[in-house]
Design brief:
The complex is a heterodimer.
Chain A: H1 2-6, H2 24-38, E1 45-49, H3 57-60, E2 64-67, H4 73-83, E3 88-94, H5 95-101, H6 103-112, E4 117-122, H7 157-164, E5 168-173, H8 177-189, E6 194-199, H9 215-225, E7 226-228, H10 229-232, H11 237-240, E8 244-251, H12 257-268
Parallel strand pairs in A: 1-2, 1-3, 3-4, 4-6, 5-6, 7-8
Antiparallel strand pairs in A: 5-8
Helix pairs in contact in A: 2-8, 5-6, 6-7
Chain B: E1 9-12, H1 13-23, E2 28-31, H2 38-50, E3 54-57, H3 61-73, E4 78-82, H4 84-100, E5 104-110, H5 127-132, E6 141-143, H6 148-165, E7 168-174, H7 175-179, E8 181-184, E9 230-232, H8 246-261, H9 264-267, E10 270-273, E11 280-283, H10 286-301, E12 306-311, E13 313-315, H11 319-328, E14 331-336, H12 341-350, E15 355-360, H13 369-385
Parallel strand pairs in B: 2-3, 2-4, 4-5, 5-7, 6-7, 11-12, 11-14, 14-15
Antiparallel strand pairs in B: 1-8, 6-13, 10-12
Classes of the chains: A alpha/beta, B alpha/beta.
Chain lengths: 288, 386
C-alpha cells in the first residue's frame, strides 16, 4: 500500500518537519488513501494550504499545490475553483488557520456552497509557534498563552460549518483513520462545500501540557472519547459533554456555487430566458 | 464578442478601467465594495459573464486579492479594484503575489486618508504604500493615469506588464480620474497590444517553475495544464520548494527585483511638455498633472521658462530621466495631494543637483493651476534674486 501511495508524494521533500508522535502523518495518509480510492488525476487536482504545521503538507504532495498566507487558503481556493470548476480543489488547514484568522473566509465559503473539500487538521493548538491556544482548544486546557488554563469557550467547527451553509460535514480522529479515509473520500465526491474535521494529536505542544504525555496517551484519549453519530443520537447532552462525535454528521443536496454561476453566464449571454434565482426555487424576475 | 467601439463616447474613468481590463483579456474579477472604486466592480459584475468570465464579490479585500491570485494561477487574467482602506488590507497578499510571481492587477482608486479619511475626496496619499506597503524587499509596478483615455490605456498596460513580468501591478488612480467623465475614442481591438504570460516550452520533467537565471522571468505553467509544481510565499528554490539556504534566498530576492529594475526602459511611460528649455521643471502625476499643465502654460505667458514632466509609471522610479532633467533645471517643483511622498524620491535622485520644492495639499480638494502657478512665480523670484 505504501508503495502505491508514494506516487502522490514529493519524496525529495522528506524528512518532513513534523515532530515525533505528531498525528498529521496519519491524516495525510488518510487523504492519500482517499485520493487513491477515487483515482483522482494528480494533474487535475489542486491542494491548497494555509499556514501552520498541517498546511505544510501541501509541499509534500505531488499535485498542483499552493501554500498561501495565514488563514486565506479558502479565499485562494475559491478563486481557483471559480476560474476552473473542472479542477478538484482540496484545502488543508489547521484549527487556528481555519477558525481564527481564517474564520471569515471559512463561513463565507461554506455559505456559498462552493465545491471545495476542507480537511481540517484539529490538533487543538497552535503547534508551529509553540503551543498557543486556538478557537478549538477546549476550555480549561493549558497553553503557553493560557498559563492558568483557557477561559474562552471553543467552537464546535462542525456546527459552525453547518450553520454557515456547508452541505457535507464529517469528523473522525487519527485513531479512527479508516473511517477518516472514507469520510474524506465522501467529502471529495460531494458536490458542494464539505468539511472533514480530523482530530489529530500534538503531543509536543498540547498533550504534554494537558496530562497526555505520550503520543499513545493522545490516541487513547481519542479512542476513549469518540462516539459515533449513530450512538450519539441516543445519548443525552450531558452524556455527550466532552465527547467527540464522529462519523458523517450532516449531508444535504443544494445548488453548488460554480454551477449557479454557469447559469449566470448563460443568462448574461442571453441563452436562457429565466432568471438565475429560479433554479434555487426562490423565483425572481426575468432580466436577461 | 465585444463590438468594435469606433465612435466617440462619454466615459467615466472607472468605466474606462473596466473596459481596458476586459480588452486586455481579463476574465476574472473578485472585489469588495468601496468608494470611490465600486463602479469598476459593478461594471465587471455585468460585463464578465457576458464574455464567459467570472465575477465574485468576496467577504473582504483580503479574500478578494487571494481569489484573484488563485484564478491567475489557474490561468485566467484577473484583477481587483479597491481604495485606501481595502488597499491596506491587501498588502499581505501583494507580497505573496510578488514572491510567488503571480500576475495580478490591483486598481487602487485613491481617497483621502489615513484610515477612513474622506471617502469621496481625492488624494495621492498611497504613493509610498503602493511601493512599500507590504513587508520585505519586493518588486512592484505602479501606474498613474491623468485622463479617462489614459485610464483605459494604462489598464491594458497594467495587465500586459503583470503577464510579462509576473508581478503584481498597481493601477494607482486618483478619485477625480476615477469619477471624471470625458469624451474618449477607444482603440479598436485590433490596434491593442495584448500580452499573454509565457508558458513553458519544455516538458513537465524539465520544467523549473522559478528558474530564470539572475534577472529573468520564468515561464508560467497554469494549474491543471499537466505541470505539477509547488507555489509558496516561503523562500523557494527554482523548483518552488521551500528552503532556508542563504545562497538560494539571496539569489531569489535579487532576481525578483532585477527583473523589474533592469527592464525600466521597457516598463517606463512618461510625457513631457516644454522641457527643452525649461528652467523650472514641474514634476506631476495623476490628476495633479492636469493642473500642472495649465500652470506651465500660464507661466510661459509670464515669461517663466517652465516645463512639465509627467511619469505615468511611478514605480519603478524614472531615475535617469529625473536625474537628467535636474542637470539643466534650476528647480524641480513637485505638486502632490499628499505631504510630499514622491518629492522625497525626487530629492533622493535630484536633490544634490537642483532645488526640489513641493506644493502639497491634503485638504481633500484638487491642487489648482493657480496654486502651482503661484509656486512657480515664487521659485522664479527666488532664482532671480540668487
Amino acid at each position: 500500500m505504501m508503495q502505491d501511495l508514494e506516487k502522490y508524494l514529493r519524496v525529495n521533500m522528506f524528512p518532513h518537519m513534523w515532530c515525533p508522535g505528531c498525528g498529521n502523518g496519519i491524516v495525510l495518509s488518510s487523504l492519500l488513501r482517499a485520493v487513491d480510492k477515487l483515482k483522482l488525476d494528480q494533474n487535475q487536482t489542486v491542494i491548497v494550504g494555509g499556514i501552520g504545521c498541517s498546511s505544510r503538507a501541501a509541499g509534500y504532495l505531488d499535485f498542483n499545490t499552493l501554500h498561501t498566507t495565514h488563514g486565506r487558503a479558502l479565499a485562494f481556493a475559491t478563486g481557483i475553483k471559480l476560474a476552473r470548476p473542472e479542477l478538484k480543489v482540496i484545502v488543508i488547514t489547521g484549527d487556528g488557520d481555519c477558525t481564527s484568522i481564517g474564520g471569515n473566509h471559512f463561513i463565507h465559503a461554506a455559505r456559498r456552497n462552493i465545491d471545495l473539500t476542507v480537511l481540517l487538521f484539529n490538533n487543538s493548538i497552535y503547534g508551529m509557534t509553540g503551543g498557543q491556544y486556538s478557537p478549538l482548544t477546549p476550555v480549561k486546557k493549558m497553553a503557553t498563552t493560557a498559563p492558568y488554563g483557557t477561559i474562552e469557550p471553543n467552537f464546535d467547527v462542525a456546527d459552525l460549518a453547518r450553520a454557515a451553509g456547508a452541505t457535507f460535514v464529517a469528523r473522525s480522529t487519527t485513531y479512527h483513520s479508516n473511517m477518516l479515509t472514507g469520510l474524506i473520500a465522501e467529502g471529495i465526491q460531494h458536490k458542494g462545500f464539505s468539511l472533514v474535521e480530523a482530530i489529530t494529536a500534538c503531543p509536543t505542544a498540547y498533550g504534554r501540557r494537558n496530562k497526555m504525555k505520550s503520543p499513545a496517551d493522545m490516541l487513547i484519549w481519542q479512542k476513549d472519547n469518540a462516539v459515533h453519530i449513530n450512538k450519539a443520537e441516543q445519548m443525552s447532552p450531558g452524556e455527550l459533554a466532552e465527547k467527540i462525535v464522529i462519523g458523517r454528521l450532516y449531508c444535504k443536496e443544494a445548488p453548488e456555487y460554480t454551477e449557479l454561476y454557469d447559469e449566470v453566464i448563460k443568462q448574461a449571454m442571453g441563452q436562457v430566458s429565466g432568471s438565475v434565482t429560479s433554479i434555487t426555487g426562490k423565483g425572481g424576475k426575468t432580466s436577461g | 464578442m465585444s463590438r468594435v467601439i469606433e465612435m466617440a463616447r462619454l466615459m467615466q474613468g472607472n468605466e474606462a478601467v473596466a473596459e481596458g481590463a476586459l480588452a486586455a483579456g481579463v476574465r476574472f474579477f473578485a472585489g469588495y465594495p468601496i468608494t470611490p472604486s465600486t463602479e469598476i466592480a459593478e461594471i465587471m459584475a455585468e460585463r464578465l459573464p457576458r464574455l464567459g468570465g467570472k465575477f465574485i464579490q468576496m467577504e473582504d479585500e483580503i479574500a478578494s486579492i487571494a481569489a484573484i491570485i488563485g484564478a491567475s494561477l489557474a490561468g485566467v487574467k484577473s484583477i481587483t479594484a479597491t481604495s485606501g482602506p481595502g488597499f491596506s488590507l491587501m498588502q499581505e497578499n501583494i507580497g505573496f503575489a510578488a514572491m510567488a510571481e503571480v500576475p495580478i492587477v490591483i486598481v487602487n482608486v485613491q481617497r483621502s486618508g489615513p484610515s477612513t479619511g474622506m471617502p469621496t475626496a481625492p488624494a495621492q496619499g498611497d504613493v509610498m504604500q503602493s511601493r512599500w506597503g507590504t513587508h520585505g524587499d519586493h518588486p512592484v509596478i505602479v501606474l498613474s493615469p491623468s485622463s479617462v483615455r489614459e485610464a483605459y490605456d494604462l489598464a491594458v498596460r497594467s495587465v500586459n506588464l503583470a503577464e510579462k513580468y509576473r508581478v503584481p501591478v498597481v493601477l494607482l488612480m486618483d478619485e477625480v480620474i476615477g469619477h471624471l467623465r470625458e469624451k474618449v475614442v477607444l482603440p479598436s481591438p485590433g490596434e491593442l497590444e495584448v500580452v499573454n504570460r509565457v508558458e513553458p516550452d519544455v516538458g513537465p520533467e524539465k520544467y523549473l517553475p522559478f528558474g530564470a537565471g539572475d534577472q529573468g522571468v520564468p515561464p508560467m505553467a497554469n494549474f491543471g495544464s499537466g505541470y505539477r509544481y509547488h507555489v509558496t510565499g516561503l523562500v523557494h528554490d527554482p523548483k518552488g520548494l521551500p528552503t532556508n539556504n542563504p545562497v538560494v534566498a539571496e539569489k531569489l530576492i535579487k532576481r525578483l527585483q532585477n527583473k523589474i529594475d533592469l527592464n525600466l526602459d521597457d516598463i517606463m511611460i512618461d510625457t513631457g511638455k516644454n522641457l527643452e528649455d525649461a528652467e523650472i521643471v514641474v514634476l506631476a502625476y495623476g490628476a495633479t498633472a492636469r493642473s500642472a499643465l495649465q500652470a506651465v502654460k500660464d507661466a510661459r505667458k509670464e515669461g517663466i521658462k517652465a516645463g512639465l514632466y509627467r511619469p505615468a509609471v511611478l514605480w519603478p522610479f524614472p531615475q535617469q530621466k529625473v536625474g537628467a532633467l535636474a542637470e539643466n533645471a534650476r528647480a524641480v517643483l513637485v505638486p502632490e495631494m499628499n505631504l510630499g511622498q514622491y518629492r522625497l524620491e525626487v530629492e533622493r535622485v535630484a536633490g544634490e543637483r537642483t532645488r526640489v520644492v513641493g506644493v502639497n495639499r491634503v485638504h481633500g480638494e484638487l491642487i489648482t493651476p493657480e496654486e502651482i502657478l503661484a509656486a512657480l512665480r515664487e521659485v522664479h523670484k527666488h532664482d532671480a534674486r540668487s
